[in-house]
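Re: the 372-residue chain
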Amino acid sequence: MKAGFHLPVLLLAFFLFCGTCPELISQDSWEEGAFDKRTGAKLSDQQWKALLPDTYDLFGNDNVLELVIESDFKKFIRDKDKDQYQEALLHHPLNDTTLVKRVVRIKPRGIFRKKYCSVPPIKLNFKHTDLYVKSVQQLEKMKVVTECRNAVSYEDYVLREYLTYKIYQQLTNLSFKVKLIRLTTVDTGSKKKKTNSSYAFLIEEVDDLAKRIGLEYLDTETANSNSVVDENMAMLSVFQYMIGNTDWSVAGAHNIKLFKDDDPAQLKAFAAPYDFDYSGLVNAPYAVPTPGLEISKVRSRYFKSPCYDAQLFKDVIQQFISEKNDIYALVEGFPHLSSASIKDILTFLQGFYKQIESKGVENFFLKNCGNL
């Protein structure tokens, strides 16, 4: 990502609420630009860029964004193991009267999901796309988490994972922000231009998280849990225990990103987790615990953490307890999941809170720490 670019300021030029998604066109007739939705007339760059606000915070609200991606998805799936980009046409309304179309590049991502999923998650690449918001540099890349298979249950898992990110944000700002979208894909590789619409979400880029929290991204795979700031590592470990996730490791940077402080006196790094689809809270059918652990299913919690003194564990536990009502309210107020799914998540979380609210619970964490 280019120096000086700050993602959350950007995306009104790319993602805005879609009332009626645009009429879709064939790949042979792709035309970039901004168009009047009533007349079809093409606007000049000066005309449509004048409509952009000075700033825009993509993650500043919980509105669902509508996004259309048109591409040869038959080829996308066929070539999913080649790690190469292909062109796509992105449709997005700039406002009620203006539609913007831009050619971007997409490729599959995710080692496991490329093997298991009918359509793997998407990485969007805007590196050579002329898109701007006033005083903001160009967007380059963004991850999109999509449903693994075309089924209601798999859309449910996407929503549960999105909600897991939001729960962690409730506990700490050292967490990746996410944006819920309604994604429509149009397969130009099929004769009838097959379409599919489902919930998905965008994940904040690592460089933007680093800038937001005033740290630098540490691109390394040589760290270990003891090289992470104690309070940060304890918080992360208890959170992973809460959601029933063992699919992470600081060593090898597996589903963990590390950040460093410019202060030479701060020798330890900070860590932020991501990818929660193997957690018990999401409870996807393909999720299994890390091999070698004493559990056989992801809904059986297992504590992975370095050992710290009792007071640190007490402090972390108290923070989880202090956020309990807000976390429950976040889950209960999430409008996109069924009541059955909401009830299931709350029941799972209640098991965690029943445990940590018991007297002397810090002794459990003291006894079971060191398992990494």
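The chain has two domains: 8-208, 215-368.
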